[in-house]
Amino acid sequence: MSKFAAYPVDKNVKQYDEYKFTLPEVYREVAKEELREDEVVREKALAEMRLWIANNPHIRKCRTDAKFLLRFLRFRQFSVPMACEALERYLTMREMYPSWFKKLDSGSEKMKELFMAGATSIVGQDSNGRTVVFFRMARFLPELFEPPYGGMFIALLIEAMLEWEEVQIGGLQVMVDYTDIDLKLFEKWGTSELKLVIEAYTRWYPVRYHDTHAAKLPKKALPIIEKILSFTNPKIREQINCYANVADMEKHFEPSIAPKGYGGNVDLDGDVNPAVWKRIEQQRDIILGLDRMEIDYDYYAPIWDEHNAALAIETPSV
């Protein structure tokens, strides 16, 4: 059940919310050192971005609360022009592909079943403030993780995490265990569908990714994984580390958040996953409320097509 109400999307508001930094001190330090964020920079950037949104006739309805806009400002290290561009791309993505990136409902039984199967765990934060996301690929249910539901599931998790300021500031570290992966997982995914969702996750959503550690990728899965990686942001590809065995990968879990079976005592299935899903359910109205934002589709669609045509040239073939 949702605990929090959806945010307003009327961009012409008389008074904006007053932002307060409430995270632990480690995030204040990371924000300053990595994102160039302090109180003066933050308030100035928020004011400039809000003014830009209010004066932009092609953005008709948009959240202007601080937490939402800080997604994009932190993603672009408080360059207001770049943050505004990232917002436009995000809004256009959602409008161009609503069947993938709208109606992301944690109340859906399919979404809950996909999460509680334990294939994806949001483990917690390490000492550097990074949120660790762990994929156990053998646990994905091929009959549920098919287009568009599989894409919507990951999009729901991303939208939920982007509401958490610790993710906006600290970013994500990704861990992947490919042991016993079932290649049926990808049978119904065409190249165009894979390209769409991977580019969304790594380019259009304002997510800060750190290093990725993956283990036990079987040779038979290599072609499909190489295809997926070809659609990934090049900077992210450079941060991927692969290991022949799980023992080498699990060394990159900090002891305090290492799961059972991976060198630690954290109970993902009994403790972590149920608690995280409850937190996501509490945000249900907030995430569904994103669908009320509106843009001038006729204006942005040609820009989107032009940009992606250029991107296709840059993307290496497999």
Structure, explained:
- The chain contains 15 helices and seven strands.
- It is α/β, with parallel strands linked by helices and 318 residues long.
- Strand 4, helix 9 (191-204) and strand 5 form a beta-alpha-beta unit.
- Helix 3 (66-75) crosses helix 4 (80-96).
- The chain is globular.
- The termini are far apart.
- Mean pLDDT is 94; it is low at 313-318.
Supply database-style keywords.
two-stranded antiparallel sheet, 7 strands, single chain, 318 residues, alpha/beta
| Structural class by sheet pairing and helices | alpha/beta
Number of helices: 15
**Distance linking N and C termini:** 44 Å
- Mean of residue pLDDT? 94
Given the C-alpha coordinates, what overall shape results? Answer: globular
Helix content: 40-55%
Biggest sheet features: 5 strands, mixed
Task: Using the CA coordinates, give the radius of gyration.
Answer: 19 Å
Give the total of beta strands. Answer: 7
Order of helices and strands: HHEHHHHEEHHEHEHHEHHHEH
How much of the sequence lies in strands comes to 5-15%
Residue windows where pLDDT falls under 50 for at least 5 positions: 313-318
Biggest sheet: strand arrangement: 2-3-4-5-6
